[in-house]
Amino acid sequence: MTHPRLSRATFAVSVVIVLLTILAVARATKALDPNLWQLLELPLVDGARNTIILSLTIIPLGLGIGFTVGWARFSRHPIISWPATLYVDFIRGVPPLVLILFAFFWIPSLFAGASFESGLAFAAFALAMHTGAYQAEIFRAGFQAVARGQIEAGEAVGLSKGQVMANVILPQTFRVTLPALGNEFALVIKDSSLLSIVGATDLAYWGKQSELGLLRLGSIEWVMLAWLIIALVYFVVTYMVTQAVGAVEQSYRVPGIGSVAF
After folding, report:
1. What is the pTM of this model?
2. DSSP characters for the chain?
3. CATH of the domain at 148
4. For the chain, what is the domain count?
């Protein structure tokens, strides 16, 4: 077992090393130059805001799609489970970038008066469909983790199918799927950068737009520094989301149920 003082010392040394590395990079790239931050202020603020908005839009949509399709996959009726299986297999086999481009350029053409905003909305929905296919498999695994005997026991004591779902299946599925869902949410935040291809003004878009200005004012080091800062913003956002999901997982943890650390 690691001694607590040794762990704290290791953490302190790691923090010092990271800080020294950041200072060295800042000095080498002239990161304290006010011209750099004047150029990056709008891209970072606007890009971070739009990335968060896109993520908070796509994640709930994908969650709803994943739950619905996962439950359909769990169904014993082929007329329900077969289309859900076809959807999952097809969407998971197509790159998300292809789905985004198809949704942005082709679907709006089917409607009169299509605009850039509607194309972007369809592109975001395509990304939600993509993550929904993966979340469907997460939910299917969660549903299958519930012992059939518990479902039959609930029905035997007089619970309706809705009550069995709410009181037997969902609580256990919720606990089982949370870790995998947290990972999928983090992937959605990073995959939202693909929407910059069709003009979404997120962090990736603003990073690309800032390159020419940075090259005129500084050098290639400033471009690399800008992308490093953008990567750190993505890291912070994904870390916050995964920590929030981890906190929810911990609050709903049942002692004696779950994995054991060795």
Report:
1. 0.79
2. ---HHHHHHHHHHHHHHHHHHHHHHHHHTTTT-HHHHHHHHHHHHHHHHHHHHHHHHHHHHHHHHHHHHHHHHH-S-HHHHHHHHHHHHHHHTS-HHHHHHHHHHTGGGGSTT--HHHHHHHHHHHHHHHHHHHHHHHHHHHHHTS-HHHHHHHHHTT--HHHHIIIIIHHHHHHHHHHHHHHHHHHHHHHGGGGGGGT--SHHHHHHHHHHHHHHHS-HHHHHHHHHHHHHHHHHHHHHHHHHHHHHHHHTPPTTSS----
3. 1.10.3720.10
4. 1
Q: What does the pLDDT look like over 120-144, one tens digit per residue?
A: 999 999 999 999 999 999 999 888 8
Question: Does 25 reside within a domain?
Answer: no
